[in-house]
Design brief:
By secondary structure, the protein is an alpha+beta fold. It is built from two helices and eight strands, in the order ααββββββββ. The longest helix has 34 residues. 21% of the residues are buried.
Length: 150
């Protein structure tokens, strides 16, 4: 008679102890799955930049960047950011990809892509190959997300 209530008590105790861990894992999976939609666009931009860089000065390539209304991709900037692609969601930095497969430098100040077709061009600046945004089919965002200063 005492065996069944004791088993139930132990079962509920184990469930109670495991519930916070399971809830935490579920929320982490939800957060990471939100970024999956924009991730292919980051990968496409990265591949296009490498392709233009490998083709050399004067080469141009266009890539379609499909982002949600709350997403943007920031390219380049100062210091280490000159070699990076940063994915933002609602102005919050979600992912940074460093261009480390080749010594690619992104030209100029930070360029922000909100979606559409983007054309990249490789130029020779002071004897170095530099990749920059040559054109876009959609209007660019007003500037980098506020979190890019961090």
């Amino acid at each position: 008679m005492i065996g069944m209530p004791l088993k139930l008590m132990v079962s509920f105790l184990l469930i109670g102890l495991m519930l916070p861990a399971i809830t935490g894992m579920v929320s982490m999976v939800e957060e990471s799955s939100e970024d999956v939609g924009a991730d292919p666009s980051c990968a496409a931009v990265e591949e296009c930049i490498y392709k233009v860089f490998r083709a050399g000065s004067g080469s141009m390539e266009t890539v379609h960047v499909g982002l949600g209304p709350e997403d943007s991709i920031a390219l380049g900037g100062e210091g280490a950011d000159a070699h990076s692609i940063r994915l933002y969601r609602n102005g919050e930095l979600k992912r940074t990809v460093y261009l480390d497969k080749a010594p690619v430098v992104l030209s100029g100040t930070t360029s922000v892509i909100a979606g559409g077709d983007v054309t990249f061009e490789c130029e020779s600046v002071d004897g170095k190959l530099v990749v920059g945004v040559a054109g876009r089919s959609s209007s660019p965002s007003p500037g980098p997300p506020s979190a890019s200063a961090a």
